[in-house]
Amino acid sequence: MQIVRHEATAVYSKAVEANGFVFTAGIVPSKLDADAKAQAAEVLAEIDRLLALAGTSKSKVVFANLWLADVRHREAVNEAWSAWMGGKDAPARATVEAKLVDPRMLVEIGVIAVK
What we know:
Blueprint: E1 3-8, E2 13-18, E3 21-24, H1 36-53, E4 61-68, H2 74-85, E5 92-97, E6 107-114
Parallel strand pairs: 4-5
Antiparallel strand pairs: 1-2, 2-3, 3-6, 4-6
Helix pairs in contact: 1-2
């Protein structure tokens, strides 16, 4: 089985292709002064880019993990998510509250897609 690692560093890859699947790392925002909806939209745009790099798209996402710094941001993040998904092709999804690496980060998202 061939494994393709995209944008790899010494400690992680932003995306990995293996056995017909694409796995992204937990993607975090760079605009840390933005609100939760804007941070989620930024993260989802980065996921779009990574999926395209690996030869797939959001319509083929089968599972998503969303980590929120505060569960009260869920509705704002869901608005960004719904706009991104376009109201269709919804994958299985888990959303949990978690302490993120930087306290200014409000959301982190990782997905699994098929090729």
